[in-house]
Design brief:
By secondary structure, the chain is mainly α. It has one domain (55-270). The chain contains 10 helices and no strands. It has helices spanning 2-10, 13-50, 55-66, 70-92, 101-139, 142-148, 153-191, 196-206, 209-235, 240-270. α7 packs across α9. The longest helix has 39 residues, at 101-139. It starts with a helix and ends with a helix. Residues 3-10 have low confidence and may be disordered.
Amino acid sequence: MPATEHVGAATPAGPLSALGARLASRFLEFITQLGGMIQLAASALVISFTHPPKWREVVRQMFNFGVQSAPVVLLTGAATGAILALQMWYQMRPLGMATAIGPIVSLSMANELGPLLTGIMVAGRMGAAMAAELGTMRVTEQIDALRSLATDPVRYLVVPRLIAGVVMIPLLTAFSIAIGILGGFIVAVHLKGENAAFYWHNTLHYTDPGDVWVGIIKAAVFAMIIVIVACYKGFNTSGGAEGVGKATTGTVVVASVTILISDFFLTNILF
């Protein structure tokens, strides 16, 4: 009887113990990955200044980041500005505040929506592509071959992508902000009949260059997040083609969530 009571008392603790072990394992994995990403970012930044890569590779990555990502980024920016202006018109028109549509669209695009949506779009496109490329190189032992040839994979593979991302994603963000404001202008003026002079006057009066710089700074931070997460996931891929797929999916999820979280803290710091 005592033995039976002992077993019955221990049984409920079994699932709780297993859950605790899984949570501890997940937390340890998170800390390990976070430390690895920080170490990779530090190494890439140091190498960028001490041993710059070949500029031909940097230019090639800039083309991938900028030219090939431009259509989806510009389309997203234009649609966001147009939708925001349309919603603001429906909200502000009954209150007699339709002249505030221009400043609301411009400030929203410059401070938040421009860099945030650009970062998420590039993370979905270039982040996934980088993780798949580096992950394939990892599982086919091409990265190990670089090390055997005395070539630093971080300098050869990570640094060009980091430089290209930090240069091109802020530029894409600037274009996204501009075309978002233009999209809002088209909707407010040409679709809803608001006065064009009031739209541009209020937009330029309430939007400072500092607001645009906030978006540019955020975009540069988001670029570093995208490149470091994608390269880390690619470098640590295992399990063949299935592992490459997991690395690609993980890159998009982790980079997007990290961008959203970091945007909150950057907003508090920059304002």
